[in-house]
Amino acid sequence: MAPARRSHLYSGTEIRAGLTTALGQVTAGDHVLITHHGKPVAALIGLEAYQHLTAVGPPASQETVMQVISVYNQAGGAGKTTITMNLGYALKERGYRVLLIDMDPQASLTRWLGLLTPGAAQASPPAEKLSRTAFHVLSDPDEELPEPLHAFGLDVIPANSKLSAGDSLLYSERERLTYLRRAIRAQGGYDFVLLDGPPGRSALALAAVAASDQLIIPINVSKSMDNLGNVGEFLREARTFSPDLNVLALTMHSFMANTRHHQDMLRTVTEQLSAIAPATTPITHKSTLYNDAALYQQPVAVYAPQKSPRKEFDTLAGEVLGLLNMPESLEVSR
Ligand SMILES: Nc1ncnc2c1ncn2[C@@H]1O[C@H](COP(=O)(O)OP(=O)(O)OP(=O)(O)O)[C@@H](O)[C@H]1O
Ligand SMILES: [Mg+2]
Predict the structure, then answer these.
(1) Where is the AAA domain (predicted)?
(2) What per-residue confidence (pLDDT) applies to 99?
(3) Which of 47-61, 256-270, 289-303, 306-320 has the lowest mean pLDDT?
(4) Domain 7-57 is of which CATH architecture?
């Protein structure tokens, strides 16, 4: 254990006379605190400690706790991938460092970000190798997260169809469900890690949610909500690995304000389901826009910056930040 440093207190008026002594104390590794009218205003610290502080970088107000959030609803087509990608991009636009992890062997997130398409100078897609996916971590308890790919200012751990092998690995040894959680935390360096879960109750879905501290449940308002009843059981299982797992928000999308059924759904979610989690402002229905953005392999805010979905996902990002008590934005320059 490092020896405890002694602290010395000087008032502003004493420091001039006591400077030689104070500097001797700092050289000896002690801390010197200077007060003015009884309030601490400055500190003298050793050069090594100062260099360490300046090398560490951003001031405390810019430091955030890394938030690991799964976007999951076992229903297929619930909006998991759309919300992961576009919320991630909106958070990036607000200056946050974002890592997206595609946990679905369908790999829609990876494809929609253009990472399953070979670039001009490449023969194969960047996301082709299984070793670039979360499988890398699930296969070995000592492995770190693979080097991420990059798209639109986001870091991405991609998926491809071979990731389905992860399911059998996880079924064969339950302990492996903890590996992703450990590797994400060992990595650090991000403000947000968003995981796009696969549909159904596969082991990959459980690994994604078990790796998270927060869960966003997407709800497609044009589909039935029957499956939400099963979420409780799934959460219980995930909480054996992530005891503090919190349902952060219910996020409705494909909402049409002039449709009576959608208004009823909105009331149900905001009133009756508020015990599960707060509802965020619904994302409106724009099927052509979302389909085209996916086809052109871009977040919707990049594909159509002038259209309303950009603002809607920015609002969602603001609501998520509010729920997590995080600053509305971080300076992009940090
Ligand atoms: N606001 C919206 N308006 C219209 N269509 C939308 C909207 N959001 C998502 N969609 C469409 O809904 C479909 C399903 O969305 P998405 O693929 O994100 O769901 P998913 O839960 O990830 O599906 P899967 O379970 O297959 O992984 C997609 O075709 C997407 O373009
Ligand atoms: Mg999906």
Answers:
(1) 66-225
(2) 98
(3) 47-61
(4) 3-Layer(aba) Sandwich (3.40)
